[in-house]
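ARCHIVE CARD
CATEGORY: sequence design from structure
SOURCE FIELD: tokenized fold
FIELD CONTENT:
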């Protein structure tokens, strides 16, 4: 599974973390903006634990993050969000994507850090110093290093 970055604008909307349900959700700013990115085949997900990255099957574009993720408190740390550019991320893979079916993102030992002062949640394999960071949706930044997904940075609105 390889990830590639292309120029483009992020999907506008609101990423929310519901503390009572321990989960992320994404609401697109408009149904029209989301439907412009969706093909006719449906969506699947790639997983980091229980965090899901929604993928349009036809284009293989990663759209946004969502899902049950009780680890948000993880390790409380002061985080400096990476420098990122707006863009789009696509997946190439030998896997046949099917509606509603999920695939695990390669990588062991994803670690979670949370900065309560800034609201950033970092899910990383490593420091990802050489990664390129791209904002694919409001509140969602992906770090790609040499075709591998190495980081997901989330900046949600917290709801109780």
């Amino acid at each position: 599974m390889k990830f590639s970055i292309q120029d483009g604008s992020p999907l506008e909307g609101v990423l929310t973390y519901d503390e009572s349900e321990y989960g992320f959700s994404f609401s697109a700013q408009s149904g029209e903006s989301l439907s412009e990115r969706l093909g006719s085949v449906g969506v699947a997900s790639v997983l980091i634990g229980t965090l899901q990255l929604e993928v349009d099957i036809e284009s293989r574009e990663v759209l946004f993050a969502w899902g049950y993720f009780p680890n948000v408190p993880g390790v409380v740390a002061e985080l400096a969000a990476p420098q990122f550019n707006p863009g789009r991320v696509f997946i190439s893979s030998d896997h046949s994507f099917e509606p509603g079916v999920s695939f695990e993102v390669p990588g062991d030992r994803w670690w979670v850090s949370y900065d309560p002062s800034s609201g950033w949640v970092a899910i990383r394999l490593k420091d990802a110093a050489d990664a390129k960071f791209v904002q694919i949706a409001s509140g969602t930044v992906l770090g790609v290093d040499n075709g591998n997904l190495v980081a997901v940075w989330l900046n949600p609105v917290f709801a109780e």
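CARD ANNOTATION: The radius of gyration is 15 Å. The mean pLDDT is 92.
SHELF: design records, drawer C
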